[in-house]
Amino acid sequence: MLMSVRLISLPVLLLAPALSAAQQLVDTHLHYDAAYARAFPPGEVVDLLERNRISHALVTGIPPRQVRVLHEADPQRILPLLGVYRKPADRTDWYADAELPGRVERQLKSGPWRGIGELHIFAADRRSPVLRRLAELAVAHELPLLLHADPAVVDTLYETVPGVTLIWAHAGTYPYPDLLADYLERYPRLHVDLSVRDGRIAPEGELAPDWYRLLVEYPDRFLLGVDTFSLARWQDYDRVVAGIRQWLAQLPPEVLERLARGNAARLFEPLNSGH
């Protein structure tokens, strides 16, 4: 009997990756900095996304204008995210720059921006007036805020700006399913991007039971992403996407579809369906 179960299961296992490979994905966490653009000009990025069946990509960059260059190369596919860093060092002290909200407000008036971020901030600085003002601008412009932060920052933002839509990058700094379930219950406007957490979600490619339960219980709240935080990550893009597809294919079809495209389509409505 065990032999026959294995024989029946084998075609399913062989078929799942092929089905997953045909599934279009939305990548909600890419960086296209000036330093990467020299090695990956816009045309090569578009080809890379096309090869990996990435129908749309949410992209931020340093400096912010770098993303507009990529957006112009493929306006339907590239969803530009307004980054707030003019140079890499800004990542460590942007929340103390009193002039930053004014710059962001002006930029939001003249660009195809679909969100703000990524913002790196942790508990000690969670009451920054700059952070609060950026969250208020996100609400005023009906844009999500991509946040690289610990739980205390999420709590503080929802205390002070309850209407903000947050995307919690990398499933937070403590990516534990029980903690994430607690936060998703607390904050209906919180979404979670799973970038760079594939090793936790699916050790050796097999979807972990606690992550399976979490994704099935909250199928409308998760987003996929690669996070091209370095040039090496761009160079490894094919392999990372293949790994995401491997664990994604282990979910029920309706959950797979929501993570692959449905949740992003709702959050960034409308997604152009041209690809």
Q: State the helicity in percent bands.
A: 40-55%
**Strand order of the main beta sheet, please?**
4-5-6-7-8
Tertiary shape: globular
Total strand segments: 8
The overall pLDDT average reads: 91
User: What distance lies between the first and last C-alpha atoms, to the nearest angstrom?
Assistant: 45 Å
Low-confidence stretches: 1-15
DSSP strand (E) fraction? Answer: 5-15%
Order of helices and strands: HEHHEHEHEHEHEHEHHEHHH
Which structural class matches the secondary elements? alpha/beta
Mind telling me the C-alpha Rg?
A: 19 Å
Instruction: Characterize the largest beta sheet: strand count, sense, and whether it forms a barrel.
Output: 5 strands, parallel
Compute the number of helices.
13
How would you portray this structure in words?
- The protein has 275 residues and is of the alpha/beta class.
- The protein has 13 helices and eight strands.
- The strands form two sheets. It has a five-stranded parallel sheet.
- Strand 4, helix 6 and strand 5 form a beta-alpha-beta unit.
- Helix 1 packs across helix 12 and helix 5 runs parallel beside helix 6.
- The radius of gyration is 19 Å and the shape is globular.
- The chain starts with a helix and ends in an 8-residue tail after the last helix.
- The N terminus is likely disordered.
